[in-house]
Design goal:
Order of helices and strands of chain A: HHHHHHH
Helix content of chain A: over 70%
Number of helices of chain A: 7
Helix content of chain B: over 70%
Radius of gyration of chain B: 19 Å
Largest interface: A-B, 99 and 106 residues
Number of strands of chain A: 0
Shape of chain B: globular
Distance between the termini of chain A: 50 Å
Number of strands of chain B: 0
Order of helices and strands of chain B: HHHHHHHH
Oligomer: heterodimer
Largest sheet of chain A: none
Chain lengths: 181, 184
């Protein structure tokens, strides 16, 4: 049997290598590897990880890798799992960036990316729509959405300031309104 | 120093990316424009590459911007920066995660942050869209017309839950065909 840190590293490298799009796309694979195969965590714990990931900074894949690594192998385990999940994309992106640099002057590549840019805007719109669908449907939520968009678009307010102010408003609303559900 | 700048900038982006995935887009757009690391067009090219390669979107885009700005050491610094906040926070939270999950304070803060992120992504989409589709103001050229057409078709396919990589492939082919046809 492999040592826990090596096992964590290799398993999360596999997860990192075989998930495209990141985020929730990784969950089925994490479930298969960490819950079913390795029995590192239970299904319920995985749900907890997702809940935590939603309210902590950073990509869900990193959060899950760090959490599971910590649980199985302490700090070293967390380190190995996190490096494992990041390393495949790191290597691939570095390779792709050199490849693109070498070929970006070609007309066909420039045309391809010109088309791709319109497609990416559609992908962002789709991501926006699915976040919107999942969000709470009340006037408080809609007001914050509109105010944040307007603040950035028309008044050039820094995104970090918008996020921080809205976090404070959320906490204040909880105190004032009590149960808003 | 560029390495420190990349590390700190992506640390900040990692720290304030709440809600995952495209939540980091508004922050990245702001920082990248501020530091002059990429134009709007390059940023969207990066997003396309990040979507069509394995791994978390945030890591991919940090690696890409770090690499093109300051080589492989730059890629390392940016990637380390974007990963470190989540790593540290999870190490802290994992001990008291039940408390964290049920914390009224966290729930309250997230009830404000989630809508903010939606508003911010919408704003980023509008400003990137404006720069990419209407580079010369609102003059509608043949290129703008084709861009809008590709956008509409891919948006419909996206709503039909088609694979993002397929969508990127289709828009690449459309771009090549239209590019040669109208001689951009």
């Amino acid at each position: 049997m492999r040592s826990a840190p090596a096992d964590l590293f290799l398993t999360f490298a596999k997860i990192g290598l075989f998930t495209f799009g990141g985020g929730y796309a990784m969950l089925p694979l994490i479930e298969k590897e960490a819950v079913d195969n390795k029995k590192w965590i239970t299904d319920n714990e995985l749900l907890d990880v997702v809940a935590i990931a939603e309210s902590t900074p950073g990509p869900i894949a990193i959060n899950a890798a760090t959490f599971i690594g910590k649980k199985v192998g302490g700090f070293i385990g967390a380190l190995c799992a996190t490096i494992g999940v990041v390393l495949p994309s790191f290597i691939i992106i570095v390779a792709v960036s050199y490849f693109l640099e070498a070929f970006q002057h070609l007309k066909i590549i420039r045309y391809a990316f010109w088309g791709i840019r319109a497609g990416v805007l559609a992908l962002i719109l789709m991501a926006l729509w699915s976040l919107f669908k999942k969000s709470r449907k009340d006037i408080f939520t809609y007001l914050l959405m509109a105010a944040s968009g307007v603040a950035v678009l028309f008044f050039n307010v820094n995104a970090i300031i918008v996020i921080s102010v809205c976090a404070v408003i959320g906490i204040a609303a909880l105190r004032v309104g009590g149960k808003r559900e | 120093m560029i390495y420190l700048e990349l590390f700190l900038t992506f640390f900040k982006i990692g720290l304030f990316t709440l809600g995952g995935g495209y939540a980091m887009l508004p922050l990245i757009r702001e920082e990248v424009a501020l530091h002059g690391w990429a134009s709007a067009e390059e940023l969207i090219n990066f997003i396309a590459v990040s979507e069509s390669t394995p791994g978390p979107f945030a890591v991919n885009i940090a690696t890409f911007i770090g690499r093109t700005t300051a080589g492989i050491p730059g890629a390392l610094c940016a990637t380390l920066g974007v990963v470190l906040p989540s790593f540290i926070v999870i190490l802290i939270v994992s001990k008291l995660y039940d408390k964290f999950r049920k914390s009224k304070l966290v729930q309250g803060a997230m009830s404000g942050v989630k809508p903010a992120v939606i508003g911010l992504i919408a704003a980023a989409l509008i400003s990137l869209g404006k720069q990419v589709m209407f580079p010369d103001g609102y003059f509608v050229s043949a290129a703008t017309f084709v861009s809008i057409l590709i956008f509409i078709v891919t948006a419909v396919l996206a709503f039909l839950k088609k694979n993002p990589i397929l969508l990127i492939g289709i828009s690449a082919v459309a771009g090549i065909v239209a590019g040669y046809a109208i001689g951009l």
